Amino acid sequence: MGYSFSGITLKERFRLSRFVSGEKAVDAPVTLNHRRIFILPTQRGLGFVLLIALLLLIAFVYNNNLAYMLAFLLASVFFVTILHSYKALAGLVVQKGRSKAVFAGEAAGFDIHINNPTDMERSQMQIKLQDTQNLTMHPQSVAHVTLYSITQKRGWHEAGTVTVSSTYPLGLFRAWSPVRFDLKALVYPKPARHETPFPQTPSAEAQQGFSQKGGDDFYGLQEYQSGDSIRHIHWKTFAKGLGVFSKQYGGEHSSEEIRLDYDLAPGHDIEERLSQLCRWVVDAEQAGISYGFALPGFTLPPDNGLAHYRKCLEALALF
Questions:
Q1: What gap in Å lies between CA 171 and CA 173, rounded to an integer?
Q2: Rounded-to-integer distance, Cα 45 and Cα 81, Å
Q3: If 284 and its partner were Cys, which of 8, 134, 278, 291 is the partner (CB 3.0–4.6 Å)?
């Protein structure tokens, strides 16, 4: 058993992954301290060291006291900057926020909250996931940042390592702190590109037969209500700034239903069939049709609305 220091063993303290990926993922807020903040010279800092070395060489060769004094002065600035670089991040509290479900191929957004409980302003800060955002924090303030990560496949997508860094005050050093949270987003299958007719179930056939009998005669407009099909929105009225209205057709009824079944979805493999089923769910919800849903071992009765829509997509994501 290794020696423990500040909550971690000596072996863990010098593990290389700590400097890149951070420590194990946590749920609780993380306070940046000496255990989590790392500092290394930047390219400018290395150039500064080279300048000091040249000044010392010149002072030695020519025995010039002024050159010695300048070299030692710059060296003192260099070492004092290390302390200020550490203070640029020390004391900040980083906390995870929420994430939203997305379709595969889209960027998942992860909310991160950074609290500056001190009376010191924090400038020249960056926070990075896959993209980097610059940040300046005033004393006693909280910053809310959304970081994005491109998703590749359905299922749970972990946020990964969030890196908070700063080059304050002179850009000679980069102080950074990699933080990992138990933060993930649900990724739905990517909807199929091509529109495919809904599966021919008895309800769908009855719906098509009803449309063919001419039961879709337009008879007027009514104010748009949640759940109305976006295909029925009267865009000309909306463009004139008169409000949002839905076109109403004679013979419309709420009993039309379809059944979206995995066994009826076309595709060469599981992912293609799930993708097509996802497209049917999206199209049925947008059309305002009541739809049943079935996967092997999972069935939902016909319904529509946001709650039903999310249940279907979550089942597809976790299948």
A1: 6
A2: 10
A3: 291
Query: How far apart are alpha carbons 246 and 303 in whole angstroms?
Result: 21
pLDDT (tens digit per residue) in 66-107 = 999 999 999 999 999 999 999 999 999 999 999 999 999 999
Residue 240: predicted pLDDT: 54
Question: Are 237 and 215 within 8 A, CB to CB?
Answer: no
pLDDT > 90 in the chain, percent: 65
The yes-or-no verdict on residue 221 having pLDDT over 80 is no
Of 265, 297, 263, 298, the C-alpha closest to 281 is 265
Place of tokens 């290395």: 46
Cα dihedral 10→13→15→19 (10° resolution): -170
Instruction: Name which of 17, 34, 38, 18 is nearest 173 in CA terms.
Output: 38
